[in-house]
Amino acid sequence: CCLEMTTKxxxxxxxxxxxxxxxEEEIVSVLxxxxxxxxxxxxEVFNFERTLEELYLDANQIEELPKQxxxxxxxxxxxxPDNDLSSLPTTIASLVNLKELxxxxxxxxxxxxxxxxxxxxxxxxxxxNPVSK
Length: 133
Description:
Layout: E1 4-7, E2 12-14, E3 28-32, E4 54-56, E5 77-79, E6 100-102, E7 123-125
Parallel strand pairs: 3-4, 4-5, 5-6, 6-7
Antiparallel strand pairs: 1-2, 1-3
InterPro entries: Leu-rich_rpt, Leu-rich_rpt_typical-subtyp, LRR_dom_sf, Synaptic_Scaffolding_LAP-MAGUK
Pfam family, one: LRR_8
Protein name: LRRC7 protein
């Protein structure tokens, strides 16, 4: 699966397994792991937790979100539709800059009460989930 990345300077390139950059190190703000057949969030994501603003994990088989994901303080958009999530962890409240959350087409039954701590959150796409509350 190829991973596309976008830097602050809007340069698009390929992130190769060795993650070696030519010249100065790029600041990665967007990672797209859509349609990669993943069962968990790739560990490489956490190498960019200070600069990552958008993360796309669409159409995989991810069952849970790791705690370390919620250290990505710059994250503004988290897109994880069409996965196998059954719940959102309460640690989602630590994503204080999150503006958009797409959790559609999962098995999520309820939202943690403290999601209201995500003060910037303006868009939640949660269709095709058995949400009860």
